[in-house]
């Protein structure tokens, strides 16, 4: 007999795309919405955007949907929300992010993205709170992700699956975001494994390699989104200067507080971007 508490993605013979399709079918049954056009994963500091983009018609505990895990990180709410946008389109807001450092495997990390794609979403917006390498970025600064360095030594792609990542963080969507806020800076996001913060030497390495933002999410999700044929828009909230850039020790409390302080401004910014999609 199978263990009812086991995540189906952990089964040796699991098909992650079939499980994503099952999850999307469950979403459609619960919400009565056949298709969600846009999906948003809201990281630290970005959650209030869900209240601003439209009318929430359904809020679902993510663990009620096949393949989803309970969030381990404080500040993530563990729900899926179906939102009717003023344009008549539908947005799926994912408040249940599984981080790579939780050791659940890459399939679970990217399951929310694959579910969104199976639900019909053609645009995936990935947001996070992260450390800044540019010393002119003060905590609370939103930055567009222009590219990434994946330092997890892993990939969501399985087998001989070759996906072009040249325009992974879509230039079209970044240009659209600039029409909303021309002053938005851009940077290369560097995903480390975590959960420990980076050492000053690691931050220096990332800077030497061309990185501007350091964090523990997003890159693996973006690759899965591109595999699914979605356009990706990435946004980081700079919650702190990275180790060795900042003269002060880092703390998770600092990250959470910076997100709370910036939340009204950056959530309104994201809502204005969504209006343009």
Give a structural overview.
- This protein is an alpha/beta fold and 277 residues long.
- The protein has a single domain, classed as Rossmann fold (3-Layer(aba) Sandwich), CATH 3.40.50.1580.
- A 5-stranded mixed barrel has the order 5-8-7-6-9, surrounded by 4 helices.
- α1 crosses α4.
- The chain starts with 15 loop residues before the first helix and ends with a helix.
- The model has no long low-confidence stretch (mean pLDDT 92).
Topology (SSEs and partners):
Elements: H1 16-31, E1 38-41, H2 49-52, E2 55-61, E3 79-84, E4 90-94, H3 106-109, H4 111-118, E5 123-132, E6 141-150, H5 171-180, E7 185-191, H6 200-208, E8 213-215, H7 219-227, E9 231-241, H8 252-276
Parallel strand pairs: 1-4, 1-5, 5-9, 6-7, 7-8
Antiparallel strand pairs: 2-3, 3-4, 5-8, 6-9
Helix pairs in contact: 1-4
């Amino acid at each position: 007999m199978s263990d009812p508490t086991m995540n189906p993605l952990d089964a040796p013979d699991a098909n992650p795309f079939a499980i994503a399709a099952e999850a999307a079918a469950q979403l459609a049954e619960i919400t009565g919405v056949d298709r969600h056009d846009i999906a948003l994963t809201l990281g630290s500091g970005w959650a209030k955007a869900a209240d601003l983009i439209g009318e929430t018609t359904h809020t679902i505990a993510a663990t009620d949907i096949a393949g989803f895990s309970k969030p381990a990180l404080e500040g993530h709410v563990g729900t899926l929300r179906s939102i009717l946008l003023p344009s008549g389109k539908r947005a799926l807001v994912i408040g249940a992010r599984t981080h790579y450092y939780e050791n659940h495997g890459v399939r679970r990390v990217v399951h929310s993205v694959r579910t969104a794609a199976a639900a019909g979403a053609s645009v995936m917006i990935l947001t996070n709170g992260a450390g800044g390498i540019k010393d002119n970025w003060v905590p609370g600064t939103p930055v567009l992700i222009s590219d990434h360095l994946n330092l997890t030594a892993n990939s969501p792609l399985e087998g001989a699956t070759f996906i072009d990542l040249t325009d992974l963080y879509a230039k079209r969507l970044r240009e659209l975001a600039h029409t909303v806020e021309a002053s938005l800076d851009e940077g290369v996001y560097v995903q480390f494994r975590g959960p420990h913060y980076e050492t000053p030497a690691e931050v220096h390495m990332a800077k030497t390699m061309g990185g501007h933002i350091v964090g523990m999410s997003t890159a693996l999700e973006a690759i899965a989104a591109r595999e699914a044929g979605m356009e990706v828009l990435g946004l980081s909230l700079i919650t702190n200067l990275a180790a060795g850039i900042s003269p002060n020790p880092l703390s998770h409390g600092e990250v959470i507080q910076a997100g709370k302080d910036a939340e009204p401004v950056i959530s309104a910014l994201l809502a204005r971007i969504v209006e343009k999609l």
